[in-house]
Design goal:
single chain; 142 residues; mainly alpha; 80% helix; flat
Length: 142
């Protein structure tokens, strides 16, 4: 292989690598706001709601400050609804696992417990726990 061809190949690989990095970065930035909205405290949600309305409706500073308490109250209600919904989903899944457990083999029960632990760990990481709290004790599977 001659030197010119080697340089062309090296530059080609470098360009492909940079294109991948750029695509990954753009994709991450594009999807990040949706994720952060889902997992944000009500104060951040209220701020984004206020900013969006201010921008899209062309609100004056006076209008924006006048509606801020209403938006704050709505954001708190939405956060309460989200938390209650998440609690109900976890409760339903726990009940489902308890109901199906008698029909599983011991190995399958172990795998199910590992799946539950993995989900618990992910949930705790999303909430910002560096050392997650201990899992609640559940009754042993029959």
């Amino acid at each position: 292989m001659n030197t010119g061809l080697k340089w062309n190949l090296a530059v080609g690989f470098l360009l492909v690598f940079l294109a991948g990095v750029t695509t990954g970065t753009v994709t991450w930035h594009w999807h990040r706001p949706a994720w952060s909205l889902e997992h944000s405290p009500s104060g951040a949600l209220a701020h984004r709601m206020n900013e969006r309305l201010r921008h899209e409706l062309g609100l004056t500073p006076e209008q924006s400050s006048k509606i801020a308490p209403i938006i704050d109250q709505s954001a708190k209600k939405l956060e309460t609804i989200r938390m209650e919904s998440a609690r109900r989903v976890r409760q339903t899944l726990t009940e489902t696992h308890l109901q199906i457990s008698p029909d599983l083999t011991p190995e399958q029960r172990t795998k199910l417990a590992a799946i539950e632990e993995k989900h618990r760990h992910r949930r705790d990481r999303r909430r910002g726990f560096s050392n997650p709290p201990p899992a609640p004790e559940e009754s042993p599977a029959p």
